[in-house]
Amino acid sequence: MTDRKIRVLIAKPGLDGHDRGAKVIARALRDAGMEVIYTGLRQTPEMIAEAAVQENVDVIGMSILSGAHLVLVPKVIDTVRKTGLTEVGFFVGGIIPEEDVAVLKVAGVNAVYGPGTSTVTVIEDVKSFAHAA
Amino acid sequence: MKSLEVLSAAGKLALSRLISEVENETSAGRTALDECFSRSGKAHLIGVTGAPGTGKSSLVNRLAQLIRREGNQTVAIVAIDPSSPFTGGAILGDRVRMRDLSGDPGVFIRSMASRGELGGLARTTAGVVQLLDAAGYDLILIETVGAGQSEVDIARLAHTTIVVESPGMGDDIQAIKAGILEIADILVVNKADRPGIENTERALRANLELGYSHRVTGKAGHGGFTEENKVVDAEEWVPPVIKTIATEESGFPELIKAIVEHRSYLQKTGLLAQREHERLTDEFDHILRHTLVQNWKAQTSDEHVQQIMDAVYKRKRSPANAVEELTRTSN
Q1: Model confidence pLDDT, tens digit, residues B81-99
Q2: In this predicted structure, what is the pLDDT of residue B7?
Q3: Contact assessment for residue B114 and residue B80, using Cβ atoms and an 8 Å cutoff
Q4: Which residues in chain A have their CB less than 8 angstroms from residue B106's CB?
Q5: How many whole angstroms separate alpha carbon B33 and alpha carbon B22?
Q6: Is the same domain home to B192 and B314?
Q7: Considering only CB atoms, which residues of chain A are within 8 Å of chain B?
Q8: Looking at the structure, do residues B308 and B219 belong to the same domain, yes or no?
Q9: Domain limits at B233?
Q10: How many CB pairs under 8 A join A and B?
Q11: Within this chain, do residues B114 and B196 fall inside the same structural domain, yes or no?
C-alpha cells in the first residue's frame, strides 16, 4: 500500500515573533491531511534549507511580518535550491505590499497570501504545488 | 546496487529521499531496505519515550548536542508525532526544540507521522532506522509519540530505552502499573528544578525496589541464594534513576554514562544479540502479517467480503465466523 502524503515545511524566517498566522496555516494543512513540519520562530535561511532537505518536503511556506521579505525570501529560495531540492514549491504569508508580490514571484514564489486569505485557497494551492513537483 | 552507493556518498538529500520511499512503502523503498540490510546493525539504537510534555524533545536535543561535543560519534534522530485519526494529517513539531542541533553536519533529524499506528511508532520506523544505521550514523535516537501506559513498541526496536517522567505525573500506584515503566533501561526524571521532584523520584525508586529489592537495597535479600543465582543476580541490570534539566546540562553527563554502561552490559551478557534476534523476529512477524493481509485482500473480491459483512452487521454471523468463512473460500 503506498500512501503518498504531502509534506510541508512551515517556517518563520527573520526576527518577528508573530506566529499565529503560521500556526493557523499549519493547522489548516494538517486538517487537509498533510504532514506539516513546524520549525518555530527565527529561522535562518540555512536552518530552513537544512530542515527541508532532512524532511524531504514538497512545499515550503514562509510567514513573514517583519517587512524583510524582499531580503529573506530570495535568500531562502536560493539556499534551498543550492541543496539540490530544485522542485520544491514556495509560498509566503504575511503583510506583503502589492508591488512586492511580483518581485517575490520572479524570485520563485508560487503564491503570496495576505490577511483574509481563505485557508481553502491555501490548501488547494499547496496541493497543486506539491503535485507539480 | 544504486541505493548502497547513494548511502555511502553521504548525500543527505539522497538519504532523505530514500527515507520517503520507505515511509511511503514504495517498491523503491523496499529495494533500498533489501540492499542496505547487510550494512545495518552497527548503530546503537536509543529509544526515548514518556508522556506528552515530559520534555522528550528537549532531552533528545540536549543529549545529541552533548554527545556531539564529547566525541566524534554522529547522531541521527527520528522523532515521531501522531497523525490525526480523522484526516491523516499531522503537525510534526519536534524540531522546534532541536534548534541547537542545526548547522551540525554530524546530525540528521527526521520527523515522522505515526500514520495510524498505535504503539508509539510508525509502521515504517524500523525501516527508516535501518536506513540511517546503514548510512553510518553511530547513535540513533528514536523519540516516540507522547506515550501513556501501553505504547511499548519502542522497547522492541531500541537497544536502550529511556523512559522520561517529570514531576507531578501521578502517584505511586501509577508507578507500579504494568507498561511503560517496565520497559525502561534508564529512568529519567526531567524538569528536576520543578517542585515535587522528590516525590516523583521516591515513587520511581520505590517501584524499582519492588522489582529488584535485593539489588537496590544492597542486601542479599532472603539469604537463600545459591551460588548460581548470585551470578545471574549480579548480572541483572537495574535501571538507574537520573534527574535532568533538559533546558540546562544538569544530569546529562550521568545520562550519557548510563547509556554507555547499558550498551556494554548488553554486549557483555550477550543480551545485545538476543535483543537483536527478538527484534528481527518481530519485524519479520510484522511484515509477514501485513503482507498476508495485503495479498489476501488483493485476491478477494470486495463484494464477497461485503456480503459476509452484511451478515455480520445483521448479527447472523460473528466476526470470527466471517473470517473463517472468508479465509476458507479464498484458498
Answers
A1: 999 989 999 999 999 999 8
A2: 46
A3: yes
A4: none
A5: 8
A6: no
A7: 1-5, 7, 26-27, 29-40, 46-47, 50-51, 53-56, 83-85
A8: no
A9: 41-269
A10: 87
A11: yes
